[in-house]
Amino acid sequence: MSGSPEIIGRIHSPYKEKFAVPRQPKLVPSATARIELLGEANCPEAVRGLAQFSHLWVLFLFDQNQSAGWKPTVRPPRLGGNERIGVFASRSTFRPNSIGMSAVEFKGITQQGQQIFIELGNVDIVHGTPVIDIKPYLPYSDAIPSAAGGYANEAPQLSEVCFSEPARRCLSSHPDGQHLRSVIQEVLAQDPRPAYKKGKTDEKEYAVHLFEMNVRFTVQQNVITVTSITPVTPSQNHP
């Protein structure tokens, strides 16, 4: 993209691919992430005073979509994927300048050698996404309780998530199994399938790459069953 802003960091998150990323922040509270600061932004002076704030605005690039271009109208999932509205009345990832923004929880600053990380919660951003700016969230001006949310005024309905016996065995043997289970459950409860399939039985087995695990699941109406959880190896092609 010509005239792209400077990249000041990279996101490290559980979401290794676009599929199953929550469509908004706050929907998967168990998932944590971090920003790895880059270049001149990777210095203690740049984050001085950040600890005063509980939440941050993170501005980033939808880099995986830039080559696909954009259209003036889109089909939001919240409208079933059938009704078209203007791109500026949506949070579609296909936008004229491919810029996204999320209000996320600030969990602290860590440093490993010379590398500074900003620790985050409630992130809805794909692993590896380039960050172009970070700003403090100001409750007195950024929170508007009387605001109207249009067609997305309410939080999405959640599906029930169950784990098969093989999936439970994998989680019980994993050193961070309880946390992994919580993230998987919160992610899949959103039903990441295309909008027109929500609430419908599906014969297909789906797979999503979370952390370094390949999570397979099926859907019967509003019940999602995790059928297996297996480690992803570098040479493995994700389905």
What does this structure look like?
It is globular and about 50 Å long. Helix 2 packs across helix 3. By secondary structure, it is mainly β. It folds into two domains: 9-142, Elongation Factor Tu (Ef-tu), domain 3 (Beta Barrel), CATH 2.40.30; 160-231, RelE-like (YaeB-like fold), CATH 3.30.2310.20. The chain has helices at 139-142, 165-173, 177-188; strands spanning 9-12, 32-37, 55-61, 73-74, 85-86, 99-112, 115-121, 130-136, 160-163, 202-210, 213-220, 223-231.
- Strand arrangement in the largest pleated sheet: 1-2-7-6-3-8
Strand residue content:
25-35%
Give the overall silhouette.
Answer: globular
Number of strands: 12
Residue runs with pLDDT of under 50 for 5 or more positions: none
CATH class of the largest domain: Mainly Beta
CATH superfamily of the largest domain, called what? YaeB-like
CATH topology of the largest domain: Elongation Factor Tu (Ef-tu), domain 3
In short:
The chain has 239 residues and is mainly β. Helix content is 10%, strand content 33%.
Feature tags:
six-stranded antiparallel β-barrel; TrmO-like_N; 2 domains; mainly beta; S-adenosyl-L-methionine; 33% strand; YaeB-like fold; globular; Elongation Factor Tu (Ef-tu), domain 3
Chain-wise SSE layout:
Blueprint: E1 9-12, E2 32-37, E3 55-61, E4 73-74, E5 85-86, E6 99-112, E7 115-121, E8 130-136, H1 139-142, E9 160-163, H2 165-173, H3 177-188, E10 202-210, E11 213-220, E12 223-231
Parallel strand pairs: 9-12
Antiparallel strand pairs: 1-2, 1-8, 2-7, 3-6, 3-8, 4-5, 6-7, 10-11, 11-12
Helix pairs in contact: 2-3
